[in-house]
Amino acid sequence: MNLIIDIGNTRAKVFAFQGDDIVEGMTTGHTLEGVGEFARRTGCRQGIYSTTAHIPDEGRRVLESLGFGMMQLTGRTAVPVDILYHTTETLGADRIAGIVGARTLQPEGDLLVIDTGTCITIDFLDATDHYLGGNISPGLAMRLRAMHEGTAALPLIAVEGESPELGFDTTTALRSGAVWGIRHEIEGYIRAFRQKYPHLSVFLTGGDAKYLDISVKNRIFAPENVKVVTDERLVPRGLNTILEYNK
Question: Which top CATH class is 75-247?
Answer without folding.
Answer: alpha beta
